[in-house]
Design brief:
The protein is mainly alpha-helical. Helix content is 63%, strand content 11%. The protein has four helices and two strands. Strands 1-2 form a two-stranded antiparallel sheet.
């Protein structure tokens, strides 16, 4: 069964309902404003925002150092973000990819390995991952140095072998008669 209210009480109930809806909307707006206004944050929240802001600057500076030292081998930085109590996003971690092109010579491989190591250790306080990358680059550097050394040794041995074979050809085993000209007057 449905009971119709008189038109006056129906209008009053609708007006009450509208006022309640406006109050709820105002409350939501105030809460949203509070979360985005740092002046309205608690002391703990303000401290957290300060820490997140400092971490954001540290991370971005750290990754920029890797990019600068990596030159053309360094890719774009990518970041991991966390939302602060003020509603803003703060970088809390990051990485820069570095690609080593295929080297056409041991000298080029050595140059690339040194660039990678310099890039990995460029930041003021390298992370464990940075040390790992630098270590791998040092292994690449050692291999390139071994190749360069091997190549140089082969060149030296080749020259000595050539020298020995040409010396053997110039030293006669038996006495050959060497033609001589007598130009006495």
């Amino acid at each position: 069964m449905v009971i119709d209210q008189d038109p006056e009480s129906k209008r009053q109930n609708e007006a009450k309902k509208a006022r309640n809806e406006k109050r709820v909307e105002l409350k939501k707006e105030q809460e949203a404003k509070k979360s985005s206004d740092p002046k309205e944050l608690s002391q703990d929240e303000k401290r957290l925002v300060k820490d997140l802001s400092a971490r954001d600057s540290e991370v971005k500076t750290h990754e920029a150092a890797h990019q600068a030292a990596g030159g053309g081998m360094a890719g774009a930085a990518s970041y991991t973000y966390q939302q602060g109590p003020d509603g803003k996003m703060y970088a809390i971690g990051g990485e820069v990819s570095i690609s080593t092109p295929t080297s056409s010579s041991p000298e080029e491989a050595l140059k690339n390995a040194r660039t990678v190591a310099a890039s990995a250790l460029a930041a003021g306080s390298p992370s464990p991952q940075d040390f790992s990358v630098a270590s791998s680059a040092k292994v690449m550097e050692m291999k390139a140095l071994q190749e360069i050394s091997k190549k140089a040794q082969e060149e030296i041995e080749g020259k000595e072998s050539y020298k020995d074979s040409s010396s053997a050809q110039n030293t006669p085993d038996k006495k050959e008669e060497v033609p001589s000209l007598d130009i006495s007057a």
